[in-house]
Write a structure and sequence with these properties.
The chain is of the alpha/beta class. The protein folds into three domains: 112 residues, no CATH class; 47 residues, no CATH class; 190 residues, P-loop containing nucleotide triphosphate hydrolases (Rossmann fold, 3-Layer(aba) Sandwich), CATH 3.40.50.300. 46% of the residues lie in helices and 18% in strands.
Amino acid sequence: MKVKTYRAPTLAEALAEVKNDLGREAVIVQTRRLRQGGFLGMMATEIVEVTAAVDTTLAKANKAAAARPPEPKPKENDADDAKMLALHLELASMRKSLESVLEGRATTQKTTSEMPPEKKKTFLQEWSRKNDLDPVAADALFYGIPNINSLSSELFQSRLRERLIAHFQDVAGITVRPAYCKVVALIGPTGVGKTTTVAKLAANFALKEKYRVALVTADTYRIAAVEQLKTYADLIGIPIDVVYTPQEMRSALYRHQDKQLVLIDTAGRSPSNQPQLAELEALLAVDDNIEKHLVLSATTKFTDCLEAVQRFQPSKPQKYLFTKLDEASNLGTLFNLMFHAPKTLSYITTGQNVPDDIELADPNRLTTMMLRGKS
C-alpha cells in the first residue's frame, strides 16, 4: 500500500495530481482545508490537502492484466453486476468528495460572515490597531513598503523590521567619565516609578560598575519616598542628601564634586500644575550641565504622554526613560512619541526588582516586542 498527501489551491487540482501520480486505482482517504503562509497569523491563504492511497500490488496486477490478451467475456449477468458495483463505488467516492467540498465552503462562508469587520482589513491596519499606532505615525512607517499582498511574508517582515529598528536607533545611556562628576536628574509625572528607577541606576553604577555615586532627593512631598531612597542608599553604601530649595541643591552638588555620578530624584509633577513645573525648573537651573531624563510609563496613553512632554519642555529634558514595559499591552505610546516628539532613548524598566529589571533600550528588542504585539 502506498499513501501520499497532496496540497493544491483547489480540490480539482489536488485530485488531478493524485490521478497523475497514483493512477485511477487511487482511493481518496481524506480531504481537508488548511491555511498557510501569511504574516503573524494574518493574511494566510487557504489550500486543500488530499490524502490518497493505492494498492501497489493491485496496480501492478492491473498493468500486467492490461498487457495480457483479453479473456473471454463473462456471463452477461456477472458483467452487469460488476458494472453496477463499480458504479456504486464511484458514486460513493464522488459523494464523499462533494460533501467534503460543500462542508469546507460552508465553514469558510460562516467564518467570513462571523468575522468582525476589523479582521477583514489589511494586515497593516490590523497590526496598527493592535499596537495603538497613531495614524500619521503609521502612515510614515509604512510609506514605500508594498502591502503584504504583493510581497512574501518574509520580505515584508524584513522591511518592516528595518523601519522599526531605524525608528528606535537613537539610544544613549548615562556616560560616566572617571575624572568628571556627571549629574543626572530624573523628572516626570507622578506614579511613573522615578524613585525605584533612581535606586536601580545607583545600584548598578555603584555595585556593578564600581563608580563613586551619590544620591540627591528633592521628592520631599512624599515622606515615604525619602525613606525609601535612604534605605536603598544605606544598602548600596552611598551618601544621600535631601534638598528643598535651589540653594540646597547647589550646595549638595558642590559637596559631591568628588563623585563620578550624582543621581537626582525629583518629585512627581502633574503636567497640568504649572506652579509645580516652574518650581522644578528653578531647582534644576542651578547647573546647566545636569542631564535630564524624562521618565514616562509605557502604560500611559499616547495623548497624555505627549501632553507631559510639552509641559516638561521648559526643564529641557534631553532623553526619554520608559518604565513599566512589563505592564504595557503594546509599545504604541513609545513608538508614537518617538515619531511626534523624538528624543534620545536611554533606559527601559521591566519590573520592580532592584537592581535588576532595568536595561539600556535595545532597538532590536523593542522591534521584536512590537512585531509580536507585546500581548
